[in-house]
Structure formats: C-alpha cells, structure tokens
Sequence to fold (838 residues):
Amino acid sequence: MSAVPALEVRGLVKHYPGVKALDGVDLIVRQNEVLGLAGENGAGKSTLLKALVGLVAPDAGEIYVRGEPVKLRSVVDAADHGIGMVFQEQSLVPNLTAAENIVLGSEGAAVRRGIYRWDAMRRLAQEQLDKIGSHIDPLARTDTLTFAERQMVEIAKVLRIEERSQHPPVIILDEPTSVLESKEIETLFAQIRRLREFASVVFVSHRLDEVLDVCDRVTVLRSGQSVGEVATAGAVPRELHRMMIGSTGSDDHYHENAAAPVTAEQPRLSVRGLSGKSFHDIDLDVAAGEIVAIVGVHGSGREDVCRALFGAEPTTAGEIRMDGKKIDLPNTRAACAAGIGYVPAERKIEGMVGSMSVAENMTLTKQKARCTGPFVAPKKQATLVDSWIRRLSIRTPNRDTAIGRLSGGNQQKVVLARWLVGGDIRLLLLDHPTRGLDIGARSEVYRLMRELAASGVATVLLADSLEEAIGMADRILVMNDGRVATEVACPSGGKPSPLDLVKEMV
Amino acid sequence: MTAEEVVTAPRRQSRRGASFRDAGPPVALIVIFGIFAALSPQFRSIDNVQNIVDAAAVLAVVTCGITFVLMMGSIDLSAAGVMGASALTVSLLVANNRNDNDFGLLGILVAVLLGCAFGCLSGLALVLLKVPSFMATLGVSAIGLGVATLMFAGVQPNISDAMLESWAIERFLGFAYLTWIAAACILVGWLIQRYTRLGRYAYAIGGAEEVLTLSGVRVKPYKIAVFTLAGAFYGLGGVMVTSQLGAGLVQAGDGYDFSAITAAVVGGTLLTGGRGGILHSAVGVLLVMVLTNGLVQVGVSPYWQGGVEGLIVVAAVAAAVIPQRRRNQVVK
Fold:
C-alpha cells in the first residue's frame, strides 16, 4: 500500500443560505481501501459527495487526488481525475441499452464520425462488465433490467474512468443498498470487495451494520464536520451511532416543558390493519393532544403510511376511524373534509405555490374561511391572514409578499397555518416538517407543534432525525420493512435512547 | 453465492426488442384494416390500397421529421410554414411560368436546405434564447408563411419541370414515385435513429436529459441538429406537395403539422419524449390514412371525419399512458 492517499479532503467548507452544510470536513481515502462514510441526515454527507464529483463548488478547503491539489468543476472533471460516483437515484438513461449507458460521454471507438458501431460498442461495454464479472446482456434496454442489475451497469459505467485517468479510480457509492434485497446486497458487497483489488471505494449507507461489514475504516460526519474515524475491525454499531448523534443538547430544544399531558380517552385517530403497496397491517392510535412519531429507515414504508392517512396513497385493506367514526379516504379532499392536515416533506414542490402570496398560500385549502358565498372577501381574508401571521409570528413584509421570498422557517409556518385557518383541524400529519431549516427555525416549529398539541390537535410526525423524534414524541412507532416492529413509550423525563430504536429499525 | 449467479438468474424475454406496448399500434392497424376490409369491398380492392399508400406519402415524410423532435420531448409546429416556403422556393427555381429558371434537381436541393435553415432557426431559438419549442416553432412557421407569401407575390407559379411533375404521376411497381421517396425517407430516418449518435442522443435526451449532462455530453448542438434534420424533411415535404399540385402554394403545408403529430402519437411516440421512433410513426401514418379512407369507403359522412379522427387521437394517447397513471399525478 502506497503512502500517498488516493483522495484527501482538507477543511472543506460549503455554505447554503441559512445553513452551513460543510464546516471544515477532513477526509482521507487510502489506495485500495473501502472507506465508510456515516452520519445522520443533514450531517453533510451528500454535500461532501457532490463536492467530490464536481457538482458542488466548495467555498473553502482543498481536495487532493494522489497528493495533487485539484479543482473539480464538473462530473467530467472529476472523472478525468479518476473519481466517479454511483448516484443514489440512478443516473442511467432508461431508454438506451446498457452498453450505450456504459460508454455514454466517452464512446471512443464505438462511434466513428457520428455513426454507431454496435459491435465495437458491445465489446467496449462487455469489457467493463467483465471487470465486475457481470453477465448482463450489453444490448438489453436499461429499463428492462432490475434495480440491482442497473446498479451493476452503473458501476461498470463508473469504471470507465479507469481508462480515462490512467490511474486506479476512486468509486463513490451513495446509499447503494437502500432499495436492494438482502441477496442483492450480498452480491454488491462481493463486488465492492472485488473493486478494492484495483480501486478505492467510498461507501455511504444509513445501515451501520453494513458499513461495518464491508468497510475497512469509517469516517463519521456530524453537522458538517468529521468527528471521528473508526477502524471497523472489532467495532460495533452502537459505538458508531454514538459518534453520529453526539451528545444531545442539554437545553430544552424540543420545548419539553410545554408538552401537555395526554388525557387518554377515546383516540382521535385509530387505524387498524391498514395495508397498501409498501406497508402491511399497520395499527396506530393517536389521542387528541398527542404527538406520535413514526421512525424507520429509508424504505420502511412510513412515508407511504403517512400519505395513505391523507388519502394520497391507495390502501388495500384496513380501517381508519376519526373520533370513533369510520372514515374513507379515497382522495385528499376527503381527508381535508375529515379535519386532517398534511405538511409534505418537499415543501417547495408539494407544500406551497412559490410565486403566490402568503395570503393565497394560507387560504389555499380552506377557501370557505376567506369567502362570502362563492366570492373571495378581501377584508375577511386580510383579517384572517393577518391574525395568523401575528399568532405564529411569521416574519413577512406583508400578507401579499410571495411566499417564495420568505425564509424556510417562515414558509413552513405559512404551510402549517393553511390547516389552522379553517379552525376544524383535528389531525396533523407532519412529514419532515423541519427539513432544511436551521436550528432557530426548527425550534420555532417545535414550539408551534407543542402549542397545537396543547390545543388538542393529534399529530403524526415523521421526524428528520431520531433525536427529533425522541425529543418531540409522546410515543414512537418503529417501522421496519413495511410493518410496525414495535411501539415505544416516550414520555417527558423517560425518553428511550436512540440505540434502543436503532436495534428495531435495522 | 457468487456475483454471476444472482445477476444472470432472472432473464425475461424481449429485453432488446419490442415490448408488448410497442405491439399496440401495428395490431390496431391490422384490426382496423380487417374491419374495413370486411365491411367494404371497395376498400379491400388493390386500387384502393395503392391509393391509401400513395396518399400517405407526404404525411409520412413530414412525420419522419417531427418524430425526431418528439422523441427528444420537444414539439414542432413549424411544418406548415416551412413547407409553404419550400414549395414556393422549388416552384420558382425549377421550370415555371413566372421566370426563366430551370435548375431542376438543384432547385429541389435548395428548397430542402431552406427547410434545414428554418429548422436550425427553431433549434437556435430553443437552445440560445431558451424559447420553449412550442412557441419557437410556432414563430418559425409564421416566418415561413411570410417568406412564402412574399415569394408568391400574388401570382401563382405553375411548374413545368418534367421530372418534378413525373414524381406524382409516374408509377413504379404500382406505387407513385412520391411513395418510393417517402419509403426512402423512412429508411433513412430509421438508419439515423438506429445508427447515428444524433439519433440515439435525440432518443436519450427524451429519456433523461440530465443524465446526459452528468455524463459530460453537450446536449445543445444535438438539439439544434435534430430541429435542422426535421426541417429538411419538411422542406422535402413542401417539394412533394408542389409536385402533386403542379404549382407552388403558400398553403402547401396546411394541416400537415397537426396531422404529423397525430400520426406520430397514434403510432406510439410519446409527446413527453424518449419513446417511439420512425417505424412507430410510419405505422401511425398508415393508421391515420386507413381510418380516413376507410370511413369514406364505408359511407361515413365526410363531415364527421374530423371529429372521429380527433376522438381516436385522444383514445390512443389515453391508452398509451394507462400503465403510468397514478394518484395525484400532475398533467399539464
């Protein structure tokens, strides 16, 4: 093993408006090594990876490839330096053949003067596929392949940078296992071990057991910094996880004092045996004033349960009751009518109409609240919207400002207010309500959640992190593979530890 | 468990070739042809079949061009204007009653190149000015009509070029020369689609443009080239109409833009791009022509035809998107 690291990162910094995504990250990838990268959501993993393949320009810091400082301006630039990435959301053209995807952008002998030589192309692709010992038909259309096969095609494609840079490549795998079956994961791991013979690999996964299984060394990121490095031999997930979450803040970040005691009578929401495409037999009770968090890894089905409760996802079996009354949720309209509100994870896409005003966004769903008969009553709307701007202390120049110009936290408050203006909200479904918000804004959203709970609204929370789920929830449902694995009480003063939950999640 | 075992295990059929969905339009063509043939003895006569194919020639050429644009996920409404300009150009360059020109084949070539120039203009507007293809090509169509009107100058040029006139009249193996030209266009189009980077990238752009960019492909030149190629087909289409009419008319391309989109979509080329192709479109053209002709032969009033055709287009598109339909889908 040579002394010069294949790839080294020193003090990388990247700011986004309101967030410091990378705050001086250091990273070393040695030659012929599999390095694991672990960290919670928002720890800066994806920003770091994007910086390594030239998709994000860092504000400060250096990247060294085999000891040489480099500036990576594009994916092609990174490829020329021998760095390639297998993206989490696959980056293959679905309607081309596997072979075309493998050679895409550097066809070489496969295309001469713009004319395809299918034979040469097949041969070139076969060479790459042979490197990883894959038997996929190079001329198969990519969208006819299984997800696992497409991943192999991506790896084969990335390996083409070997010819380009004339050096052992560095291959980055971003969450490659998140949608694979266990058998396919085995294959992938065999592949990674094979890659190590002639390349360096950076492996990113949420599943710590996998990281420990396949990696030689793990670097842990937290809040945009590298907080530690662990040799995997003899390490246990517990240790890693402790580094990932760090010590929890001692201040009352989650406003636990404000947590109202739940007076359990009849549950507000009662779900029995709910099943759909990606979840099965879900039982769930939420009392008025209670916050129930659902936790689970990517692919556990919790997002789909949440959407199903809002009528946005079809269900195949089960029963949903609100305050004891059985309801049907064939569409989102029915859910709104039943007093259910939903704050989607993708705020900018699903949560708000960016070019419309604060007032329009706030009254989007509960039109009645601002109308007299079929007509919008401007005065009524103004009074209503202004009162909610005050009550939620939304910082906006005025009610007619386009919502897209507010900060993320204030946008989220408007999105929440949309469900409150009608005055008939009974159940709130919060899908990652603090995603992309900075600490101050998060805290305000937490306070708002507490107030709503205190006023008797039942809440289902899909938290951004385990810490948040534990901090906010009265009860936690752990989902694993589309089923409820366990239910953990989570009262103020008797909070479970994240590790207890992780055990059930994986 | 080794890597090979897992990767090779499931092997479904038809990974390379046509899928079940691709089979729809050809099957529909055969079924509809069969129905009309059973209903009407005139319809199934050799003469009538020749008629259908001959009548499809111009539409087939225009559809070839538009298919490349649709494959890319863009749209092209410039066919009518480009065809008008090319019709006037060719009729004023070959032997005619307005001037002493007699450039013959060269005149035809110039008309086709003019089509290329118009197509290139659409592409440049899309790529450089970021004008959506819908508006860019609509504008180019208007420019084309304007140029054609200028050249028309109030006096209709009647052509007397023997070769150009013969295209619409002379037959080879029972089909008009124009039909053979259309067949050649389909062949060339198919070769471009299958064996050139331009064709494959047009297809890939419709499939996942971002991926191409991520792979270091510069997409813009290919977009311009695709519109230019389409313009060439429209230019040739204008020449063919002139041959049929024996005169250069501003309205030579009237209605071909929408008919071509119809034919392409009915044949299985999606407006969202990334699917279909020249052969699909050829089937679509025949489907449309068989319908038009068949409805007449079985005695449906011509007044009904426009409406019936429209219904069929909507039904075809609805059938094509059934597999992708889901709740809360946004359709614009």
In short: Chain B has one domain: 62-304. Confidence is low (pLDDT under 50) at residues 1-14 of chain B.
